[in-house]
Amino acid sequence: MTQQSRSGGSPAERAEALLTRSRSRFLQALREAAEEVIHHPDWLEAFTGAAGECFDELASRRPGRSPEDAHGLTASRMNLVHDNEADYSIALINLDQRLHDYCGRDLAALHMRMRMQLVGTPVVLQDESPLGTESVCRALRGLKEAERLSATEAQGLLQQLEEPLRRHLSGFYRAFEHELANEGLGSRVRGRPQHLEPDPEASEAPDSPAARVKLGIHPVDALRLSVLARHKGKPQPQPAGGLDRSLASALIDRIEAWLGERQQYGAGVPVSLGASELGALLSPVKAAAVEVVETICGYAFEAPRLPPAFRSLIARLRVPLLRLALRSETLLAAERHAALRLVDQIANLGRTLAPDCSPDLPVCRGLLTIVNTLVQAPRISDKDFEAALGSVEALILSRQRSAIARAAAFKSEVERMERRDVALQHACRALYLVIGHANPSPVRNFLENYWVHVIAKVAYRHGSDSAEWATRLHTANRLLASVDDSQGGRSLQRRVAEIPYLIEELKEGLTWVGLTESRIWDALAPCMALHANLIAGKPAPEFVPRRSSCRPTLGSRSEKTGLKVLKHKQYVPGELPLPPAWAALEVGDTVSVALPDGSVMRGFVAMLAPLRQVILIADGDHNMQLAITARALSQQVELPETQLFRPASIVDEAASNKLVQP
Prior knowledge:
By secondary structure, the protein is mainly alpha-helical. It has helices at 3-7, 11-35, 41-60, 75-78, 86-117, 133-147, 151-183, 200-204, 209-214, 219-232, 238-242, 245-263, 284-302, 308-327, 338-351, 362-375, 382-407, 411-435, 442-462, 467-481, 492-512, 517-536, 580-583, 630-636, 650-660; strands at 553-556, 563-567, 590-594, 600-608, 614-618, 625-629, 643-645.
């Protein structure tokens, strides 16, 4: 199938085509994995059929729709855990967690890619991917029920299938994400045009500057050629073509003296050299170099992304750059000159700082010292700018290394924070599978807001394969079953007999995580009121859901001055994937992250925890650090102030802008 056929049609047709294709590829990967272990055709059909049903359910859900609206599935059918087979249910939960740990990053990248492709279509994927490990484990549950396997037989099958599933799923996730990325379907995101319309003027005038840029000529070279063409078409003053070397040198000296006088005004040259009477005496080659320099400096002085302190720095560079343009033979050579690289380095650094950054920052003072060296040079040369570029690069590198060195003191804190966040992730994942898409109720509210912390502490202290883990999950399942009769009639006497023991287990768990007795009773009161009404045969009390915020919480570590933390403290359902560029962060990358209190943290990636679930960002100028979990960062990247800075050339931007808007 060609890219055009895949991407054509209405938004609804494109969405349907993508879902159909992903469903087919997903079921194919599952079947290939299962065929390594299962040799019964009926079993394979039952397995892939159940996976297909789960895919359809998760792919068709919309925000605000109730579980019953999705293919008529009830909450009990969507619930993974069955009270009468707790061991097998917990084995499924643990398998899901191991598969998710192994394939999670690849799955998150694919899910993010699919959600991007579906922007602007009627389909809105939820946080849980229809291609995810939940679909796999629920398909295994469906296979067990369809073939009426015993719990022992089913657990043995899980053990045999785990390795093939890991291998085939991870390969499928990677391959399919790369396939979608290579097709370029993401051009539709947020209404971007799929292609650029051809420029009629460019097609009619192949030698125009814009045409040269489109043909691959470098912007600075295109601007140089444009200026040369313009000057060659003008009548030249008589002296310009016939000056001998001594007179030409005297003219350059006179222009430099004029520039020095203008420098005393403070902000640089208030009048354009190229437009002045002296500028008219320059040869076309020198005039082109002067115009390129003035274009760059003028563009930088108006650049909104540069702080005023950095605009002033580049304005102060204007005279040394113009002096160099009069004397250098290589300023506009094919290989980027040190002077132009210097401007790019200063601009790239400025873009990473706060818009209102103080000129008194050490890095700003250091840059000003380097620029002043160029301003005071008696006779400017290429070597002066090469030395200045080396000094700026050393200053930037030293600033980065100092920030990373300051952050090293928080290594143990970052690693401990990651272990806690991974434990909370495991707890959220397990509860998500236990609860399914059950309707809001006091029981669900209790599990999501309180019991999740008990399970997370078990995962942190004992691991998700421990007996304590299974016990706490079993308690959660029993609590759900105590208010659900859909799995078969539960007699009033049995419910009355079990509830006191269940309440004691819940109280013990909440005490273990540090809740006071009054808070424990506040947490349990809605559940106990529901139990009392059910036992008395009365309708359930009116319930107003208390959903915890899914947004991360900003805090600080008083024992570690300068360290803030941004993480989730509550139950968070579904996937929170990082965009691919952010998932590939490395130490030394420069970023800014918007924080919930309205501030913005700017700095370097100073440390990545072992599992890359916590990133430590260090400010380059102050003793300030931010430890942020990957899940929290995945939500903050939605904000415009959160940016990943990559080197860009303000020199090229200025030249391109001049060509487009002469």
